[in-house]
Batch of 2 targets.
Target 1
Amino acid sequence: MELFHNLFLGFGVALSLQNLLYCFIGVFVGTLIGVLPGIGPMATIAMLLPLTYNVPPVAALIMLAGIYYGAQYGGSTTSILVNLPGETSSVITCIDGYQMARQGRAGAALAIAAIGSFFAGTVCTLVIALFGPPIAEVALKFGSPEYFSLMLMGLVTAAVLAQGDMLKSLAMVVLGLLLGVVGSDVDSGIKRVCFDVFELADGIGFVVIAVGVFAVGEIISNLSDPEERVVFTSRVGSLYPTLQDMKESIGPIIRGTVLGGFFGVLPGTGPSIASFGSYMVEKKMAKDPTRFGHGAIEGVAGPEAANNADAQCKFIPMLTLGIPASGTMALMLGALMIHGITPGPTVMTQQPALFWGLIASMWIGNLMLVVLNLPLVGLWVSLLKVPYRLLFPAIMVFSAIGIYSSNNVSFDVYLAALFGVLGIAWRMLGCSPVPLLLGFVLGPMMEENLRRALQVSNGDPMVFLTRPISLAFIIVTVLILIVMVLPAVRNRRGDITG
Amino acid sequence: MKLVLLKNKDFWAGMMLVGIGAAAMFIARDYRFGSALRMGPGFFPAILSGILIAFGVCIMAVGLRSGEKIQDRLSLRALVLLPLSLLLFGILMERAGFIPAMVVLVFVSAAAGREFRFVEVLLLTVTLTVASAALFIWGLGLPYPLIKGF
C-alpha cells in the first residue's frame, strides 16, 4: 500500500530527534500564545519565521504548524478555566466550558476538549494522507490558465467568505496583489516601484508585512483598548471524564470533526465558523437543549473537535495546490518560499519527505498536546497573570530582531514600522489585512501565470473560458459572488459570523 | 456636510484605496504596458490599480449612503511610540550595536503602555537583552556586535 509506505516515510522524518524537538517547541509556544490573549498565531508565526532560516525546511514547517494547532489547544484551556478565549476560535467553548468549570467539572471539560481535538486531528491527518495525493495528481496536469483561475477562485472565495465587509475584503486582496508587484520584474528585469531604494529590489519582505501588520499593528490596537482583563481562576477538579461524559461526547466529536473538516477546506472560513456551526448542530440535536449554556459537555466536545479539524484541513489546499485558505496558511506558504520551495502540487512529488514528515508531525504534535497540556494546566493559568505591559515589549523585541535578521538591513525594520501604522489605519477603516496578505503571497505567481497563459493563447483572454477546468473554477467563482451578493443571504451571513 | 464626512468610515476606506490606486497607476505609467500577448512590466500593475480605484469608488459611495462612523479608539501614544521604537532600533543597530538598540527599543515601546514603572522596565530590559543575546547572537550565531567599537 502506497499510503502506508508514505506514512512510514513521514513518521521516519517526524520522529527524528531534531524534528521532534522542533515539533515540541512549536506546540509549546503555540499553547503559550493560545493561552495569552492579545497575541495570536499569525503574529507569532510571522515573528518566529526568521528564526527558522537556518534550519531545514521540514523542521521549520513542523514548528510553525505546531504553533498553529497548539494555539487552538491553548485557547480552549483558558476558555474553560477563566472564561477568556485566548483565540477567537475558542469563543464558543467559553459558553458551556466555563459553566462546567464553575460546577467543579473543569477537569472533565479540559479532558474532553483535548480528546475531541485529538480525535479530530487524527482523522484529519488521515484525510490529508488519503486525499492529498489524488488532489495533487490532478493539479499536476494544470497549465497556466488553470492555475490563474484557481488562484482567482481561492482569493475571491477567501475574501468573500471571511468576516467583515465583502467589498473591502476584495479590495484588500487587490491591494495585496499590487504590493506583490514591488521589486524586480522576473520577465523584463525592470525594478518596479523601487524609488531607487536598493533594499526594495527583491520586493517587500513577506516577514516585514506580516510582522508589521499583525504584531506591531495588533499591539497598537490592544493598547488603544482601555479594557483591563480580570482573571478568575477556578478549581480544576478531576481530570478524568466519567463514562457518562465520554458517551455523551462521542457523537458531538464525530459530527464536529466532519463539520470542521468540511469548513476547513473552504477558503476564508475561520475555525470560529466551524465551532459555531457545531455548537448549533449539537443544540438542535440535543434531547434537552435547555442544558446548553449551563455546562453541557456536548457544547465543549463538538466545537473543540470542529475547530481543530478546521485548522488541520486548512493544510489540504495549501500543501496540494499552493492556495492559502487562511492568513496563517499564507504565512506557511511564505515560509515554504523563503526556503526556496515553490508551493503547489510538485511539493508532494519533489519534497516527499517534507510533505509526509509534516503530516506525520501534526499527528505527533496533537498527541504531545494531549499528554502535555493536561498536567501543565496550572502553569498555563498562572501565565495569565503576566500583565500585558510586560508582554508587549517582549513581542516588540522579537519582532524587531526577527525582521532585522532576515536581511540584516535596517530598512526592513523602518518598513515594518510603516506597515504597523498602515495596519492600524486599515483596522480602523474596517479593512481586514488578512485578505491583503493572501493577495500579497499569491501576487507574483498570479502575474506569472497570467503572462504565460496569455502567451500560450496568443493573447486571447478567452483561454480562461475555453479550457474546461479553468472554466469550472471561473464558474464557481462567479457563483460564489452571486450567492454572497444576494441580499437575503448576506443578512444571514451577518448572523453566522457575528 | 464636511463634518459628517470627517468620521465616515467607508468614505475614508474608499479614499485610501483610490489614493493608493491612483499613485500606483501614476508610477506604473513608466513601465511598458505591452500587449496581452506579450505582457510588459506595466500590464499587471496598471490593471490592478484600475480595479483598486473602481473598488475604492464603490466603497466611497457605500459610505456616503450608510454614513457609518469610525468608532475604534486609538491610543496616539502607542501609534507614535511603537513605530518610533522600531525606527530607533534600526538606526542604533547600524550605528551603536545590539545592546543600545535593545535598551532603547524596550524603553520606548514600554512607554507606549498605560503604565510605566521604571524599575520594572529596567528589569525587563536586562532580561530581554540578555535572553535575546543568548538566543540570537550566541545561540543562532547572528553576527551583531554587542556595542560597536569594542
Target 2
Amino acid sequence: MGFLISIALLFLMLIVSQATLVGQTTAEGVLEFPKHEIRDFRSEVIRSVHLETTNDIREDLRLLSLKRNHAVVSVETSELWVEDRQVTMVMIRYNNGVTVYEETLLV
Amino acid sequence: MVTIDFLVGFTIFISAFIIVVAMVPHPLFAVQSARIDYDAVAYRTGVILVEDPGMPTSPDFPAWERQMDPGDVIRMGLAVERGSPHILSPAKVDRFFDTGFFTYPDDYQRSLIFGDYPYSFHITLSHRDDRWSVGPAPPDQFGVVRRVVTVKETSSLIRDGNVHHEFHLPENLTGDQRLTIGIPCATLIDPAVDPLFRIDPRIDPLQIEVRNIREYLNVTGNEAVVLDEIRIARQGITIPFAAYTLDIDEDEAVSLDDTLQTSRTVPGNLTFTLHPVPNPPWRQADTIDITFIFSDNPDGADHRVVIYDYNNATIPRAEPGILEVAVW
Amino acid sequence: MVVQDDATLYTIEGVAAALLMIATATIVFQAISIYTPGDTHIDDMLLEQLGADALAVMDMPRGQGEKTLLEEVVQEWRPDIFDATFSPLLRERSFGAEDPIQYSAEISYRIGDGVESVTFSDPPGYVATGRDPAVRVTRWVQIHPGHSLPIPSTGRSQAVLLEVILWRG
C-alpha cells in the first residue's frame, strides 16, 4: 500500500514541477511576442519582392536579422500563374527562439 | 495486519476527499484583483483603438460609425481596415469622440474596455491642432498608454474655373450644363494602393469641389448659375440616395440625409460630400455617377464627365497624432 | 494484549490518513496556481511599443507612390530632421510634463559577409550613467544607389537596419 501511495505522490509531484514552467513560458510567449518586428519585416519583404536586386536584399535581411535581431529568417519566392496574371508567392519564416512565425502570401 | 476491507474503505475515502478538495478553487475564482492591471487594461484598449477596425452587429462592413443606434456597435476600433494598424479613419474618430451619441461610461465600457470591473478612463487624441477627448481627468494613480497614430485625410476632386476648361466650347455660352462625376469603384479600390491613400467609396467620404463656377461653366453676362437637380446613379441607373451634404459658398444648402428639393443659385463655389452608409448599395465593380444638372432641360444641356480616380482626385499628406488612454 | 495492538494500528491508520489528506490537498492546491511573471516588464514593454509606433508612423509614405519620411531622411543622411520629427512623437504628453525619453540611433548594414554599424543620431545633453534600463526598437529601411550614408557604396539597393535605443533619462 505504501508503494502505491508513493507512486501516486510521485505522479502528483511531476504535475507540480511542470505547473511552474508552464506558467512562466506561456506568459513569456505573450509578453515577448515581437509584433512590431514581424510586421516591419513582412512589409519590408513585400516592398523588396519586385526589385531587381532582390536576392542581395534577402541576404541583407537574413544576415542583419541574425546578427542584430538574433532571429533566424528565411524568405522564399516562387512564381505562379493565377488566371491570367503572374503573381509571386512569398513564404516568410521567422524564429527568434521564443516565437516561431510563418506566413505565405501572394504579392 | 492490513485487511482487505481496510484497504477498500481507505481508498474510497481518499478518492472522495481528493475530488472534494479539487472542487474547492471554483468558488475562489470569482475573487478578482483589479488594481494591479490598469496598465494592462490601458494597453489592451490602446491596441483595440489603434489596430482594430471595429465591428458593428451586421458585419457586412466594418463601418460601425454609421450605425444609428449605439447598441449596434459590438466593438469600437478606429483603424481604417483590418491590415493597416496606426492609420485611423476620420469618420470613426469623429463618431468615437461624439459624447452626444455614445454615453460615457456605459457604451465605452461595453464595446471598448470589456470586462466586469467598471474601470474609468480618459482617452485623448491630438492631431495637428485638434484635440479630442472623452472622460474625466484622471486621479493620481492610473495606468496610461501612449500610441502614435496617423489620421487619414479625406480625398477631394477639385474643379477650378480658372484652371479647368472642360466646358469652354465656342458655342457654349449659356448656363445649361450637366456635370457628371464618374466614380469607378473598381479602379479606386485597388489593393496595390497604400491604405493611407486608398479611396474606398463604401467607407470613405468623397468630396467634390467646384470653384469659380461661372468661369468653369463658361457663363457670361448676368445669367445666374442655378443648380436644379442632383442625380446619383449606380451603373447608369438612378437610385434614391440621400446621404450627402451640399455647401454653396460655405453655407450649408443641403444637410445629411436630405435631398435637393428646390433649385439653388450658385454664386461662386459648390462643395458636395458623399457620405458612406452602413449598407452601401455600391459593389466593388460598380461605377457611381453623380450628375449636377444646371438646367431645367437636362437632355438639351451640354454634358461633361470627369472621372474621380487617382489622377484627378487628391488626398492631402497625413500628419502623425498621439492617442493616449488612461485607465483607473 | 490484542486490544492494544489493534488500537495502535488504528492510531497509526488515523495518523497516516490525516497526513495523506493534508499532503494531497497541499499538492493539489500548489498544482493549480500558475506562476506568471507579473508586471515587472510592463514599463519596458510600453516604452518599446511607443518607440516602435513612432518609427512605424514615420515609415508611412508621404504620398501615393512616394518614399517615406524615414527613407528620405536616411537616404540623404539628415539626422537633424529625424530628431525634429522623432523627439516630439516620443515626448509629448497630455497629463503632466513631457516624458523625458532619450534615445540614440545607429544604422547597421551588411558588408560582404559581415555586419557593421554607424551612428546616425546621438543627441547630446545627457550623460548615460549605465544604470538606466533601455529598450531597443528597430526598423528596416531601404536605401538606393546615390545615397549619402557614410558607408561603402555597393551600387545596388540594399536594406539597412535602423536601431534606436530608448531610455528614460
